[in-house]
Design a protein that fits this description.
Length: 483
């Protein structure tokens, strides 16, 4: 089915009359726009996208749910050693908002990182001893040290970065990409989500389906959750006694009924239902082969570390992510939980870092040696950062850190991103941005830009507004980090 035909089927009568005057001209003009060669190769998406030739065709987002401590991993602050247990100066805090977990503390004692830092790569990037493998790829990544957000608690913060709005109900980044760009295959979804196991703090923040939901977009654009145990996708397998031939006949009959309903009421969700049934049928064949890591050479599996043979581990999910984008999945997002060290930094943080360190390094190496890193965008980071001051009791060997939205570290690599650079800086306390701030809307705008999308033009009508992922503020991609 052509993009224009598919787009037309999804239109209600109101959409038709609203856009009819521009339809023929838009279709003619779109054939002359850059990026249409990419559109011709894909399944689904809007006919006018990409807006320009993309540097990246696909993306993998390694999301550290709970917020990693930038001070202990990426943002080296050697001057803090001399300020151990001294109060955070009021001139640094500036009366900024605190969470209820530390707002009642009588003092805010500075907790220097107990972990050693050293310089790596051509740019001499400072990296913590917690990340011995990731430090080897600093020449391939762009480290963002001045990311910031307004949200200060987990649920609104993770909802904000995933959907562009702190209040639930908006489409996620992956749903926008599926809606705008479609997939490179019709055998797998455009957007897949995995939730790896973790070995740090077990009382982890909850994850909700809305973080990869489609909001007010058609439901076929929501992320498909891939599981490590049992059926990889819920309800994908045929029930006992139902053969593939019988299933095919059932789906054909159901499709005719749904098509009759679509013709009568023109509800786009009916078309989405037809498409989802057909996708599920094709996935019955494509998913088993996708899940078979035995097809990978032992050398590749060893690259990802000792956890690669543990279904559901972060290493396992990273290799699965590479296999998926290799097969045409547009966007893969991993949510690794447990990054919430309000206490016991010494016990929990090393375990969390060990979970992700070698696998993150291996993913970049694997993509690079396959010639895929140039057109695959990889993002690593969480929803906010951690405070320089201690939450709870402080010793030189152990401490905890509260939420901190004012500045934190993330990294990006691959298609469209300059490698081997550090962008942004913070003050000596890793408390305020001092150079090149990057708001999370700008981060999302940069992600869309790498994939050939002008974030201002990717919109959808909702409650009378042209809604977009990046909100109504005047933001744009971070040009200094674009290749």
């Amino acid at each position: 089915m052509s993009l224009y035909h598919e787009h037309a089927l999804a239109m209600t009568r109101r959409h038709f009359f609203q856009q009819g005057a521009l339809g023929l001209g838009t279709a003619a003009l779109s054939s002359l726009l850059p990026g249409q060669a990419e559109a011709a190769k894909r399944t689904g998406g809007l006919p006018e996208l990409p807006h320009f030739a993309p540097k990246a065709k696909r993306a993998i987002y390694l999301f550290m749910s709970g917020a990693p401590s930038q001070i202990d991993m990426w943002d080296h602050k050697p001057k803090m050693a001399a300020m151990y247990d001294k109060d955070l100066p009021d001139s640094i805090r500036k009366g900024q908002r605190l969470t209820t977990m530390t707002s009642g503390q009588t003092r805010f004692p500075i907790a220097p990182s107990k972990y050693k830092f050293s310089q790596h790569g051509k740019a001499g990037t400072w990296v913590s001893e917690l990340l011995p493998y990731t430090s080897r790829i600093v020449d391939d990544i762009c480290l963002l040290k001045a990311v910031h957000t307004e949200a200060i608690n987990h649920d609104p913060a993770i909802t904000y970065i995933c959907t562009g709005q702190q209040i639930p109900g908006r489409p996620s980044l992956g749903a926008w990409l599926s809606y705008g760009l479609g997939a490179e295959t019709d055998d797998l979804p455009a957007f897949v989500v995995m939730t790896p196991s973790w070995t740090g703090r077990k009382d982890a923040q909850a994850l909700y389906n809305r973080l990869w939901g489609s909001g007010f977009l058609p439901s076929k654009h929501q992320g498909v959750a891939l599981r490590a145990q049992g059926d990889p996708v819920l309800y994908l397998s045929n029930p006992a006694g139902v053969s593939p031939t019988t299933r095919r006949r059932m789906l054909d009959t159901l499709a005719r009924l749904n098509q009759k309903h679509l013709d009568e009421v023109a509800d786009p969700e009916t078309q989405a239902r037809i498409a989802q049934y057909e996708m599920a049928f094709r996935m019955q064949t494509s998913v088993p082969g996708l899940m078979d890591l035995g097809q990978e050479p032992r050398a590749v599996r060893d690259l990802y570390g000792p956890d690669i043979d543990k279904p559901g581990s972060f290493a396992y999910c990273c290799l699965m992510a590479r296999r998926m984008v290799e097969r045409g999945v547009r966007f893969v997002q991993l949510f690794h939980r447990g990054w919430d060290q309000h206490g016991n930094i010494a016990g929990d943080l090393p375990n969390q870092a060990r979970d992700i360190d070698q696998a993150s390094y291996a993913l970049i190496r694997d993509l690079k040696q396959r010639g895929m890193l140039d057109d695959t965008l990889v993002i690593w980071g969480g929803e906010f950062g951690r405070t320089i001051y201690c939450q709870g009791g402080l010793t030189k060997e152990n401490y905890g850190r509260d939420h901190h939205p004012r500045c934190y570290s993330m990294w990006m690599a691959g298609g469209g991103i300059k490698p081997g650079i550090v962008h942004g800086a913070t003050d000596d306390f890793s408390y305020n941005v001092t150079e090149n701030p990057v708001h999370i809307h700008e981060l999302n705008a940069t992600t869309l830009h790498c994939l050939g999308i002008d974030h201002r033009k990717l919109t959808a009508k909702f409650q009378g507004l042209d809604v977009r992922l990046t909100g109504v503020e005047e933001v744009g991609p971070v040009k200094a980090i674009l290749a």
